[in-house]
Amino acid sequence: MSDECEQPEIKLDNKDDKGTIVDKLTINIDGSPIGAFALPTGVKVNQKFLEHAFDTDKRVPDVHRYNLMMNDNELVLETPGVLSFIPAKFVEKSKYYDRKLTIANAESFKGAIVILLESPHMDEYDKEFNPIAPAQGATGDALDIYLASILSHFAEKGKWELGKYPVLLINPIPYQCSLGHVVKAQKNKSEEKKAKDKSNLKEWVWETLWGNCIYFQSYLSELLENINPVLILNLCTENLKGKIVFGDFAARTWNGPHPSAWTRHNTLRFNQMRVKGKKEGYFDFEYDRKSKKAFRVVIRKA
Question: Number of helices and strands (H, E) in the chain?
Fold first, then answer.
């Protein structure tokens, strides 16, 4: 399978048989309508963005975001330095020194750590709905702060040998399932109601694409086969994470809450200056806040 050419044509539609705009979304895969979603009252739809929401040029690339390095005394999570890659390989608008991950180059990341994020949202696109990279907003900030501590627990259990591991960010559905650029909620609705409407819409889009378009399942499966990861963190949201079947990689998969929930999830309230369970362990932050690209966290053994 090549990276993009085998993806079927996927179109989002909100018109009836007569071409009249209606308060209902339909997803068409290779011309066949698959399911329908009734839009909440009062929403506004950007017709220009709607018609091209699932075109391949709206696909957010999977990326190599971090490197994890372990020796006898410390665990280091950092973004690759600017000299690590040819600059042309970087994702241009990303906050990080991200390198695109594709099936074509996946084998160069053999034995990596894979982070599954579900699907991109608003921050992963610019204002004109051009894709950037995964985890550009709060999700990326949560990964920066907490991921090293989470990985340290797996390291303590002797999951891997000492050495260096690429950390890859992958969206099983690499398109904006929340349709944040396409559907705008009514302004006078409560934030709670807006969030619920968005969650229902996102889950419908994600499940429709994942369950009815075999391309996405096949793509992820081949990507994982080529990478042969030492660990998969399945961080899709609760209602969707169980939809992914990992087969031979099930024993290497940890199902955890999405990073957007980490700061409020009881099991992941890590003090930024201390590793949970280690009274003398700590984080050392070396962060280039001006560019937000160079980032380093060190966890030293107590």
Answer: 5, 14
Can you tell me the distance from the alpha carbon of 127 to that of 116, in angstroms, rounded to the nearest whole number? 25
Residues 118-163: pLDDT tens digits?
A: 999 999 999 999 999 999 999 998 998 889 888 988 877 666 788 9
Range of the domain at 145: 59-177+214-300
Residues 6+ apart with CB under 8 A from 178: 119, 121, 122, 198, 201, 202, 205
Query: 121, 111, 131: which is closest to 4 by C-alpha?
Result: 131
Closest CA to 183 of 55, 44, 47: 44
- CA 108/CA 85 separation, integer angstroms: 13
Q: Other C-beta atoms within 10 Å of 128: how many? A: 8
pLDDT above 70 for 82? no
Regarding whether 242 and 157 lie in a shared domain, the answer is yes
Distance in Å from the first CA to the final CA of the chain:
47
How many structural domains comprise the chain?
Answer: 2
Mark whether 45 and 173 lie in a shared domain: no
List phi, psi (to 5°) of 280.
-115, 5
The answer to whether residue 1 is domain-embedded is: no
pLDDT (tens digit per residue) in 32-48: 999 899 998 888 999 99
Query: Distance between CA 89 and CA 87 in Å, rounded?
Result: 5
Q: Please give the average per-residue pLDDT across 86-92, as a whole number.
A: 69
**Tell me, what's the pLDDT at 158?**
67
pLDDT at residue 102, rounded to an integer: 95
- Kindly state whether residues 70 and 127 are assigned to the same domain: yes
Is residue 5 domain-resident?
Answer: no
Indicate if 34 and 63 belong to the same structural domain: no
Structure tokens given for 195 = 């969030």
